[in-house]
Specification:
The chain is an alpha/beta fold. The chain has helices at 6-19, 21-34, 50-58, 71-80, 118-128, 145-156; strands at 40-44, 63-68, 86-90, 103-109, 129-140, 160-164, 174-180. The longest helix has 14 residues, at 6-19.
Length: 181
């Protein structure tokens, strides 16, 4: 199980602000287009809460939740999202603190490669998604690709993928895995 210490979390927050804002905007745009009014959205591995901040700005009607394994990341996310009605919790993606079939859409940005028990995490994701609910998992292209595809297809059947290029990087280094419950 990987968790960031306080200094690592602060460093990640600075890097995420500088390097990943374009990706967060892109994902927020996708969530805006995909979700229905007042949908419940869960950010898996929310880190410093940057993505949820972008989503909340675009779609204040959504019920937003974020989990992260690191209590330090959740502390930073609480500061980032202060005053916004977003539920944050320290939790493992393999043991989500949400009832069965309670999430309309789940998203993860660059955390799946850190999930130690990928099959358990994907099974848990499937458990919390409502029938017809979806997930978009963005992660580095060359990490655990076969294992990710196997776990997702076992739990969801069909897996759609899209290669994503960060605006500042000359090569597409991210894959988005999309599934529907």
């Amino acid at each position: 199980m990987t968790t960031f210490g306080y200094e690592q979390s602060l460093g990640y927050d600075r890097r995420a602000t500088r390097l990943l804002t374009g990706l967060y905007r892109r994902i927020a745009t996708d969530i805006d287009a995909i979700t229905t009014d007042s949908a419940t959205v869960l950010d898996l591995g929310t880190g410093p809460g940057k993505l949820l901040s972008h989503v909340a700005t675009r779609r204040p009607d959504l019920r937003l939740h974020g989990i992260d394994l690191s209590p330090h990341m959740i502390e930073i996310a609480r500061r980032t999202l202060a005053g916004q009605p977003i539920d944050l919790a320290v939790a493992d993606v393999a043991e989500l603190p949400h009832p069965h079939a309670s999430i309309d859409f789940a998203v993860s940005s660059l955390s799946m490669h850190e999930w130690p028990d990928l099959p358990a995490a994907v099974t848990e994701l499937r458990r919390v998604l409502r029938p017809g609910g979806g997930a978009a998992i963005f992660d580095f292209r060359f990490t655990r690709t076969r294992e990710i595809r196997r776990a997702l297809s076992t739990a969801f059947g069909s897996v759609d993928t899209e290669t994503v290029r960060l605006p500042w990087h000359p090569v597409a280094v991210i894959t988005c895995y999309r599934v529907t419950a």
